[in-house]
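Quick note —
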Amino acid sequence: MNLLQRFDRLIQSYVRAPDVGHSAEFRAAWDELERFIEEDESTHGAATPRPADPFERDFAVLGVPVGSSLESVRKAYRREVSQYHPDLFTNDPEKERAAAELTRRLTASFERIRSHYREQGRR
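Predicted structure written out below.
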């Protein structure tokens, strides 16, 4: 399960639970997401194997196949950012923080792919 799938699970548990602060399902999903982010940032351990190609990881974060056109990458980026933008979660600081982190990761991946494509002369 990648970061977006874990975050999506967190959001789904939020939608299903009327009182999010006390929902066991939400707490479990939140804890799993935090552990995933910590593992990802530190060691890229067994839970998240590091791809051989650095751009492969960026494509995976955006949910598009490696080598997709820049337009496909741009559409995926916009779709994911609009779905997980921090402004959508202003009522809950924890979710807003998680969404901000996810948005930063999405943006960084998109910028790396876009820069790489521009260096190659692809538009």
